[in-house]
Every structure is written in structure tokens, then in C-alpha cells.
Specification:
Blueprint lengths: L16 H18 L5 H8 L3 H25 L5 H21 L3 H28 L6 H30 L1 H22 L12 H6 L4 H22 L1 H8 L7 H22 L4 H22 L5 H14 L2 H12 L3 H28 L6 H27 L4
Helix pairs in contact: 1-5, 1-6, 1-7, 2-3, 3-5, 3-15, 4-5, 4-7, 5-6, 5-15, 6-7, 6-11, 6-14, 9-14, 9-15, 9-16, 11-13, 12-13, 12-14, 12-16, 14-15, 15-16
Length: about 400
């Protein structure tokens, strides 16, 4: 394998419309996952619980994703892809309606965990459908289109859900998500072929065979460390901007929006170049992210440094998303479903690990810049694992 070129075989083709439809559903699911961040106080007051209790609803969602994605992959393994996608979206609709109607905190926790299980199930199958709809030369580009739905949810979906919740109550946000999920369901029914996956003889033993590969575990660990480094910084970006950089709180949404737009640009760029230059794309993105995270932690107090670095980091870091996902599918071979689900879990392990480490550091009395510095260390760790993966590829003689 030659790292410098990384040329992929095959003729490039347009990304099918079905991937865009799936990305719209991912937009809805991504909004559902993180929209509570803007509704903590309102939900706590309405439910008669503390803000920390509402925060646990997001932790419950992360746990549901970690467990739910591989669990649903196993449970639905023999079902057609179309059926699984429809069932998962129907579950999301029903659960959000139930969430909007309940006044019970324990029941709402159950709703959030089960919503995460359905979300994980949809994610894993949507990724398989996306990869199956294009040739090997277009995997990263197609996956970047799918992932763009998640990025747009951060740019538009979460702010929209927050505004709706602030104006009409948090229950209105749940109703809105249910309505949008119905729209996604209509798109899936209209464009996803019912025959996809219906004639395949998928066996759990075959899917598990892929996990004998140490290279696959390296890829999953790289994903988890990368995600932990990024999310660990993003969760604590607001206090870093206001208390360290000295920005007025009104500037925080603007920086978050700029970072989200940068992330969308990074996803698009990564998708365009990762199929042809997979390793250079991944190494550049991980290395650049580590440098920017370290710079943010060291220079946040300097005038103008924090917002510029945060926006730049959004772009550079998310270039890595497409090659990270494409790597897993390349290693999964003919058993992609469980590998895709486990990759979803790896991202959510990062979502749990990064904020937890940052929170522990701040609780111990360390500076608010610590999460960014920890993010640099975690991302550097992901870069080291990627280097080990290259050596493993060379040793086995198997490219990418």
C-alpha cells in the first residue's frame, strides 16, 4: 500500500437520492439526541426535577445508543433493510408522542433510552444502505452525505427545537420532532427499495467473523478517541468562551453556528478526497485537530483566538469523519451490519468519555481550558492508532 497516493479503483458515480433522504432522517434523529441542551431549565421546572436530572436524560440517550445500535443490528439482522428503517422511524414517532404527553420523569427516561435504541438501529442500517448504493470508489463521499444530516441538525435543528421549546414549551419540541420523523418516514417509504436486503442470507456468525480482525478493533478505537477529543471540548465550549475568552454570552450561538458551518464544510471536503486519498486525509485531519485543540487550550484568553480556533476546528476535525466511517466498512467486508452498528456505538463511547473526563478535570479544580487540552491528547492518541493501523495493513498486505 502506498500512503502517498491511496488511489481507489472504480469509476465515480453520483450519490443516489436515497442517501439524501436518509440524511434528512439523520437530521431529525440528531436533533432529537441533542436538543435537550437548550431546554434544561424549562424541562426541570415543568417536571419538578433538577437540571442535573434533565441532564441524565442525555446520558441515558448515549447509553441507549451504545447498547442499542449493536442490539438492533442483531435483532433485525434477517429483516429487509427497508423494514428495519421503517420500524425504527415509527418507533421514534411513537416514542416522541409519548414523551410529549407524559409528566413522569421515569417514563420520560424510558422514552429517551428507547428512542436512542431506535436511533442506533436506524443509523447502522442507514449506513449499510448508503454504502450498498454506491461502488467502493464512492463510499466515503456517500457516507459524508449521510453524516451531513447530523451536522445540519447542529446548525439548524437544535436551534429550531430550542426556539420552539422556549416559545411554546418543551413538549412542542417533542411534537415537532415526531412530525419531522413522519416526513422522514414518508421519504424512506417512497425511495428505499423494499427488496434491498430481502434476499440476503445474513447470519450472526458471519457478521461476528469480522470482529476477529484486530484492524477493525483498531478502527473502532480510533473513532472513539477522536470523538471523545472533539465532544469533550464542544460540551464545555460555552464557559470557555465566556469565562476564559471574555466573550459576551450573546456571541456563543454565533461561534457555535460558525463551528457547525465549518463542520459541514469539513464533512463535504472529507467525502470528496477520502476515497482517493484515505490515509493522507485521515492523518491530516487528526493531526490538524490535535494542534488546534492544543492551541485553543493554550491561547483561549488571547483576544479573538478562541472563536477563530473553534470555527477552524469545526472544519478540520470533521474532515476525519468520512474516512473513519469508510475504514470500518472496508474492513467489515461482506458482514457490514454489526460492524456499522458497533461503529455507531464507538462514536457514542466517545460522546460519553470526552465530557466525563472534562467534567472530572473541572470538578477537580483544573482550568476551563483543560477539556481542550485533554481533547488534544485524545486526538493525538487516535492519530497514533491510525499509524498502528497503517503498519498492520502493510504487514497483512491488505490496503485500507
Amino acid at each position: 500500500m502506498t500512503i502517498g497516493t491511496g488511489t481507489r479503483p472504480g469509476v465515480r458515480q453520483p450519490v443516489p437520492r436515497v442517501v439524501t433522504v436518509l440524511a434528512l432522517s439523520i437530521f431529525v434523529l440528531g436533533t432529537s439526541e441533542f436538543v435537550l441542551t437548550g431546554l434544561l431549565s424549562d424541562m426541570a421546572a415543568d417536571l419538578g426535577v433538577t437540571i442535573s436530572d434533565v441532564g441524565y436524560l442525555m446520558s441515558g440517550f448515549a447509553v441507549g445508543m451504545i447498547v442499542g445500535a449493536p442490539l438492533m443490528a442483531v435483532v433485525t439482522l434477517r429483516l429487509p433493510r427497508f423494514t428495519t428503517l421503517v420500524v425504527m422511524l415509527v418507533a421514534v414517532v411513537v416514542l416522541h408522542v409519548l414523551g410529549a404527553l407524559t409528566s413522569s420523569y421515569p417514563l420520560l427516561m424510558v422514552v429517551r433510552v428507547l428512542s436512542a435504541v431506535a436511533t442506533g438501529g436506524f443509523w447502522s442500517v442507514a449506513a449499510v444502505v448508503t454504502v450498498s448504493s454506491v461502488g467502493p470508489a464512492d463510499r466515503a463521499r456517500a457516507l459524508s452525505r449521510l453524516l451531513a444530516g447530523l451536522i445540519v441538525s447542529n446548525i439548524a435543528g437544535i436551534p429550531l427545537g430550542t426556539v420552539v421549546g422556549q416559545q411554546f414549551g418543551w413538549r412542542a419540541t417533542f411534537w415537532l420532532i415526531a412530525l419531522l420523523a413522519v416526513a422522514g418516514l414518508i421519504g424512506v417509504v417512497a425511495l428505499v427499495p423494499r427488496s434491498w436486503g430481502s434476499g440476503e442470507q445474513r447470519r450472526l456468525s458471519t457478521e461476528l467473523t469480522a470482529f476477529r480482525s484486530g484492524r477493525l478493533w483498531l478502527a473502532l478505537a480510533t473513532t472513539a478517541l477522536y470523538q471523545a477529543g472533539m465532544i469533550g471540548m464542544l460540551v464545555y465550549l460555552e464557559p470557555l468562551l465566556t469565562r476564559v475568552a471574555g466573550l459576551d454570552p450573546g456571541w456563543v450561538p454565533a461561534v457555535q453556528f460558525g463551528s457547525g458551518v465549518g463542520a459541514l464544510g469539513g464533512i463535504v471536503l472529507g467525502g470528496r478526497i477520502a476515497d482517493r486519498y484515505p490515509w493522507p486525509t485521515l492523518f491530516a485531519a487528526l493531526g490538524g485537530s490535535a494542534v488546534l485543540l492544543a492551541s485553543l487550550g493554550l491561547t483561549a484568553a488571547l483576544p479573538g483566538a478562541a472563536p477563530v480556533l473553534a470555527v477552524g476546528l469545526g472544519f478540520v476535525a470533521f474532515v476525519a469523519a468520512a474516512p473513519l466511517n469508510a475504514r470500518v466498512f472496508a474492513l467489515a467486508g461482506s458482514a457490514p451490519t454489526l460492524a456499522s452498528a458497533t461503529n455507531t456505538s464507538a462514536f457514542n463511547v466517545g460522546n460519553s468519555l470526552g465530557p466525563a473526563l472534562g467534567g472530572l478535570a473541572i470538578a477537580a479544580g483544573w482550568a476551563l481550558t483543560t477539556p481542550s487540552l485533554l481533547g488534544a491528547v485524545l486526538t493525538a492518541g487516535a492519530l497514533v492508532l491510525a499509524g498502528v493501523a497503517v503498519l498492520a495493513d502493510r504487514r497483512t498486505g491488505s490496503p485500507w
